[in-house]
Amino acid sequence: MLGYLYQCEWALVELAQRWFKDAEAALRMEMLDDIDLLHGSVPVELVQSKHHGGQGEIGSTSADLWRSVNSWCDALEILGDSPLPLLRLVITQRVAAGSLLEKLRADPQTRDAAAALTALEELAGDTEGPKTTRPWRERFLRCTPVVREALVGQIIVDDLAPRVSEVDSKLREVIGVWKTDQGQSQEILEELKGWWWGVSNEMLDRSNPRSCPADHVTVA
C-alpha cells in the first residue's frame, strides 16, 4: 500500500520540479509508466517509482530493475518511432557497491551506459538466473541490439530517493516553503496535497467523467 501512496506523492514532487523548469510541463500516471512526465503532450521522462520499508540495496539481478526494464520495453513498443524519453528508476534503496547500476546513475564521472549494456545482456542471457525475472530478461533480449542500446542509454537510476515519510520535506524544498513559518508551511503543504489527491483520483479513475480528457495534469 505504501508503494501506491508513494507513487502518487512522488508524482507531485516530480511535477513541481519539472514545472519550475518547463512551463508546459504535464504529468500523467499509469499510462506508459508509473509516472509520465510530458512537455505539452510529448513524453520526455518515464518514471518507475519503487518504495521499500527498509534501507537495503538494489543489485543487478533485482526484480525491481528487470520489472522496470520490461515496463520500458512495453512503452517503447507503444511509442514506436517517437523520440525516446528518459527512463528513470526512482528507488529508496541504495545501489549495491560494484553493481552495474552504478554505471547508470546520472553522475557523468561514473556513468558508462555501454558497459552497463554489455553486463545487462550477459545477465539477461543467463539461464541460471532468478526464475522470477526470466520473462522480463527474455523480453529484453528479444529487442533488437539497436533498441537495447538506445533503451539502456536512456536509463537513469536515482537511488536513495526520499522515502514516503520524507516526501513532505522534499516537497517543501521544491515549492520553496522550507524556510517559511512552520505553521504556515504546513498549511500550504496540506492545501497543496489535498488538491493533489483529488487530481490523482480523477487521473487514475478512467470511468470518472470529470477526468482530464487528455489523462494528464498541468500546473497553472
Description:
The chain is of the alpha/beta class and 220 residues long. It has one domain (2-218). Helices cover 45% and strands 16% of the residues. It contains seven helices and eight strands. It has a six-stranded mixed β-sheet with strand order 7-5-3-2-1-8. A hairpin with a 2-residue loop joins strand 2 and strand 3 (42-50). Helix 1 packs parallel to helix 6. The longest helix is centred in the last third of the chain and has 23 residues, at 182-204. The chain is globular.
Q: Any key phrases for this structure?
A:
220 residues, alpha/beta, 16% strand
Gist of the model:
This protein has 220 residues and is an alpha/beta fold. 45% of the residues lie in helices and 16% in strands.
- Order of the strands making up the biggest sheet: 7-5-3-2-1-8
Helix-strand pattern, N to C? HEEEEHEEHHHEHHE
Tally the helices: what do you get?
Answer: 7
What would you report as the Rg, rounded to the nearest angstrom?
A: 18 Å
User: How much strand content do the residues show?
Assistant: 15-25%
The whole-number mean of residue pLDDT values reads 91
Distance between the termini: 30 Å
